[in-house]
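Dear all,

This email documents one entry for the complex benchmark we are building for the journal club exercise. For each entry we list the sequence lines for every component of the assembly. Then comes the predicted three-dimensional structure of the complex as a token string, followed by one or two observations. Please use this as the template for your own entries, and keep the labels exactly as they appear.
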Amino acid sequence: MSLAAIRRREGQRRSPAGTVGATRSGVIHTYRYAFLAPAVAIFTVFFLLPAFFGMYLSLTDASTYNRETHFVGLANYRLMIGDGSVLWNATKNQFLYAACVTVGKTGLGVAIAFLLNRAFTGVKVLRVVVYLPIMFSTIVVGLLFGYILKADGPVNALLEPFGLAQNWLGSFDLALYTVTAVDTWMGVGWTVVLVLAALQSVPRELIESAQLDGAGAWQTVRHIKIPCIRHAINLAALLTFITGMKAFDMIYATTGGGPGTATEVLTSYVYKQLNTGALGYASAVNVVQFLLITAVALVINRFVRRMEATA
Amino acid sequence: MSFAPARHRARKNLTALATYGMATLIAVVFLAPLYLVVITSLKGTTEAGSMSFALPKSWHFDNYLTVITTGNALRALGNSILITTMVTAGTILACSLAAFVIARRPGRISGGVYSYLLSGLIAPFAFIPAIRLLQEIGLGGSYLGLILTDIAVQIPFITLTYVGFIRQLPREIDEAALLDGAGSLRLFFTIVFPLLRPVTFTALVLIFTYAWNEFQNVLFLIPDADRWTLPMTVFTFQTTHSFDYGLVCANLVLTMLPVVAVYLAAQKYIVSGMVAGAVKA
């Protein structure tokens, strides 16, 4: 749901201001603006200030090794253009990663949600199992799969007899897709939660009347259920995409950006730059990443709002 | 006509078979990696190396002891507990207080503050400059710097959750307390805050898992290994013991256990929290 829509809806829900005997001074004394101070102060200093400070740093030669900082104008950005192909590769990988994760989590998530919407023995246990990996640390899951997928690991041991063994995380062509598959394993449960909640709120009468009209199982899914849960599917897909645009932990834990730069994304590139101490340059890349994600998020937010308007 | 019910039954059996087949497949895909890490954590060095599905020939429960004594696990556990507790308490306090005023006192200031905080839902966190910023204000590499940063990242969403909930609470509650002559802070903590229990539980679980698992901020903001949290030490432990899979897996299991415990205990709130989160984000 778009931010504007939240505010609109909450505005309607709000009870008429100060109805119940609350005098003006009562309101002032009870709901003190001072209560807003901790949240606003922490958010401003530790969330927003870094963003603006980063814009300044990106114009300097700041280093993690040296506290002295000089203004260098747009030099860092010119340097970035010089590194164009490396940066372009990281950006491209980031988009590809986000797209693959979105397709994987949404496709499998919807399928699993339909399965878990059926009544069968053990369905509750299976739900618990599917949601479980969301709770783990990305780094832990990444390491775990690093072991499972290693060249002489258990997955290859199973696939060997069929001639399907691969160097999953070490191959230039495969690594990025392998990492997105691991990410899908970990995060698909979140899509399932959302889609399942939507499926369970499809009115029973709607399904029953369709069946009375002679609709088969497939037709019920296609013409009744899917339209009813389309909103949830769209939302899950769009939020997954935004998260994919920020993905870093999983890549850091499994491939570290390699082999070569096959799985290099923006944050892993920034991390490497930082290891050379180049805080100013890293900030410049961070600013570009910040603008890119914000732009994508705004476009998506707009897109969702338009979808809601037509829905 | 007589075979129609039979065909119907056969079809029904087939559907049930397909359902159970798919369910089993999913269960295996999700449980096999967890089985592997647990079983490998109990094997000796040579046996663990192949990371097979076989049960251990000899059970090495001492792997856990080794991890706890040689690794940084205990210290990291302490760090994780400290940071997670502070982040959770801080976020809940700051957000519930702010949400109370935003939800109850209409006007330009409350509305403006609300929009301001919500901007954090879209803008990503700029972690690179945060490193230098924390240094500049004397919090570089400190627990407090990391804790306040984690809180700041969580504020937008948790405030949103609280505001939505408080707006559904009847105002009469505040009125009754005022007549009793309770001061505003006392009113909040004695009357309002206890009523927020359902949303506080959800927030608690969401913030706990976030702070417990958080990796990126620790990696970038805390250079001192003595202050690292569990996921971070697992990562470094793995680089130093890269060939002793038994030990690394024991370390992984130790890190996953607390979250599994919280998950099984508070499942209901987690699921409702995720749905609420997604619908509002």
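Observations: Chain A has a mean pLDDT of 85. Chain A has one domain: 90-310.
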